[in-house]
Amino acid sequence: MRVAIVHYWLVSMRGGEKVIEALCDMYPDADIFTLVYDESRVSEKIRRHKIFTSFLQRIPGAAKTYQSLLPLMPFALESFDLTGYDLIISSESGPAKGIIPPPGATHVCYCHSPMRYLWDHYHFYRSHAGLASRLILPMLAPMLRSWDVNTSMRVDRFVANSHHVCDRIGKYYRRPSTVVYPPVNVDDFTPAPSTEDFYLCAGQLVPYKRIDLAVKAFTRMNRPLVVIGEGSEAEALKRVAGPSITFLGRTPFPILREKLARCRALIFPGEEDFGMVPVEAMASGRPVIAYGSGGALETVAPGVTGLLFDQQSVDALIKAVIDFEAMQHRFHPETLQAHAEQFSPRKFTAGMQAIINEELLIRKAARLRSHPAVQGGREAQLPVLAMEPQSRTLQ
Question: Residue 369: in which H helix or E strand, if any?
Fold first, then answer.
């Protein structure tokens, strides 16, 4: 069986790329198709696959300025020739599902999120964009939304990375989906013998992550906060930060692992579709203080593995930190690690394999029904399989 994995862009190693690594483990001979690719920024596990890029790769600097190429991405995806592939797995957050699957192929889409900048976060992204983007995006967005919805019909089966995303797939695409949580390498994290007196924020420094809330809150409280990550908001965050805030930028994995294990708690102030870092913190034996929306509602158990605050405001975060410090003795590393285990790669692989096997069986039965065997002048009676997937979670 020939397998193609389609990912929007391979220019860094974040949550979406961790899913690609897990799919590479499942299908070691699969080919990978991506819009743009920076070999130096992805793992060896991904690099050893045969990787096909779109015509966007030939544009100078495309691996850094790919977001400005959004209007060309539908054409780039549809230019991929997937003839001869039996199974196509697309990884959607940026556009990926819009490929044209060949006749007879099965297309399973693992959806991290419908494109945020076209749908639920459209006004937020537009308000934080540069002048050119603020002017151009309203003209392009209707066409891109129409293409996005139409291409959802090229997918045989949607898999959502959380119930939060499952709801949005239903809202925007009117398609059911099955929830399979993304793989978090929980075995890579262990608790430290002791902790230190600092809190931690880790992630891309972009507006929707709301790292600004943490920086402002901990500056006001004069409590130590370590910020790990890089992004467009880095300089703006440094300008509002007080002396208790330390920025480490992009750090090697061993440093991230050490900081996760030694912090008092992870601060997670943004709304994420899933959010792997809170699970990594729990696997490190550390609790999470998170904004109570999106994926955090599925990963953080209030009072058991962390605390949730209900407003994205500095005051609400400060109150949550104060409440946490009054009860932090209740959080036990063993409980946190056990909770994180439900998001392991083993769970992801089992869930995805079950869905893919089911879809391949459905497609095989459909082919048999379209070419019925004839026995004694009669069509053989073939089993009828349920064709409509239900929205559910695979454990």
Answer: helix 345-370
